[in-house]
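Box 4.2: Ligand-aware structure prediction
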Amino acid sequence: MTLNFKKMTKKLVTDSGDGNPQIDERHHSGDMTPIPCRLLTLLALVGVMLATVQAQTSQGQGVQFADATITVGGVSFKMIAVEGGTFTMGATDEQGIDALKNEKPSHSVTLSSYLIGETEVTQALWKAVMRSNPSEFRGANQPVEQVSWSDCETFIRKLNKKTGMNFRLPTEAEWEFAARGGNKSKGYKFAGSNRLSDVAWYWQNSGDRFLPGTDDDYDGNVISRNYCHPHEVAQKSPNELGLYDMSGNVWEWCQDWYGYYDSSAQTNPTGPSRGPYCVYRGGGCESGISGCRVSTRYFYTPNDYGSSLHLTFSGFGLRLAASAPVR
Ligand SMILES: [Ca+2]
């Protein structure tokens, strides 16, 4: 088994850093317009649909909307309320020399409040919605993996039909703001810590034994023999917002088409209007340390989960998001 996520991501970054993405005329199959939030209204549907919703008052920092626990087909998952704010997206100082060309220029982004999944989508939830499980490493509380961006859109469409809610993938900016800890950010390099092993499963700690060294010691054959694999969600420490595994475990698809950054300030950015590649974030159980940084960004074709890269394991997963009521 060849585990070469580092090689794969290096290839993609090279592609992204050396020239403009090849923009074609294919239209994005997903709706890039922020979905009007009907969450509060939909909370009133408790008991009349397959889904049940329990709202819990969020504490502190003036958040005026609530975390929500949703149950679908007997599987519960929690959405964390993220208070909107302004942050610097991209290659900020704590990312250091690891920051790549496609993380620059850093720029100011202002976001409205939103909800984001406490954990990666589990196989139990995926199965409750899709009645299938594409994952290689099976387990109810394992994150779903080997899913394409398009698979995720299908999953979300069916989930929304079951719940009457408006889940979606997070925008790239929402993903990064949440990974940084939102308005509670302590400025870490990774999501919740400067010490990656505290918060993430990645190439050194996701297998049978800890593999010492740095990214310079990354060896796909050694990693393969060490049985590196995704782990059940929420086993590591959460970040400042209470979010688990935003660094490491499985990569997470974002809503946006991939594009280059601009230095101008933006509000609720949704990426290019079209393009051939979708963004994914956060690093996976086989990725290098640098791939797990909060500003690291990669991209891949929306209808594939890595098979064309000749990977025997492809750790693409997702985390849900939803727009929140206006503060
Ligand atoms: Ca992750």
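In the box above, the bound molecule is calcium ion. The helical segments are 5-18, 39-43, 123-130, 149-163, 172-179, 196-199, 220-225.
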